[in-house]
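Running this now, will post back.
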Amino acid sequence: MNRIKQLFKEKKNILSIYYTAGYPNTGDTIKIAEALERSGADMLEIGFPYSDPVADGPVIQASSKQSLDQGMTLQLLFDQLKELRKNVTIPVLLMGYVNPVLQFGVENFCKACAEVGVDGCIVPDLPMVEYEEFYQDCFEKHNLSNVFLITPQTAEARIHKIDSLTNGFIYLLSSSATTGKNLEVGDTTEAYFSRIKNMNLKNPTMIGFGISDKRTFDKACSYADGAIIGTAFVKSIADGDIDENVSRFMSEFKS
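Update: finished.
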């Protein structure tokens, strides 16, 4: 059982934090991970930056550009992550786009993840059919959970197929918009969340896109096993001392 499965077995209302590797400074990747665990995060999603992050809003796009401009690469990230498990015990996923993974080589990527203690990956633009046909065996060989995304428009048959291929959790997008939009749970969104909840999927679900504070986090947790915060956190660490910024941001969720 990898760390992701263990976490969902032991805890509810899971708080996962996304941040961009190499932002705000190239050497901050591990420092932020350690600070987040100390401050109470349950799970981490470390984004590997890409030049064309189509699903991301302006804040995360800007963090990716800054990270790339400062020299971040996938190889450099893996070099940094060799220090990850010295002090970080919570589940860690890598999140990014398929193009850098293909350039790195899927087998090399999965092997490198396993070697540094990464528990899973979120690659939004990796087609499900390609994952199942070409890459599933590789991910499973290295004990990596591959996380699929569901939107309000995802058909029920596809949701069940995703559930059958999942060995970690399912990422439930609050909308089809880019990251950074505020979560507003109107009748349509509520019906969507309730529909997924009532499907009794075998895998846990996490809600992302638009979770920015304790109120939206608690609202998301009423429909899912937890929620993911990205844009609001990335904003919070743009300037100043990393430890202070992380502690200040996370203090809201400890109350």
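The first strand starts at residue 14 and ends at 20. More later if anyone needs it.
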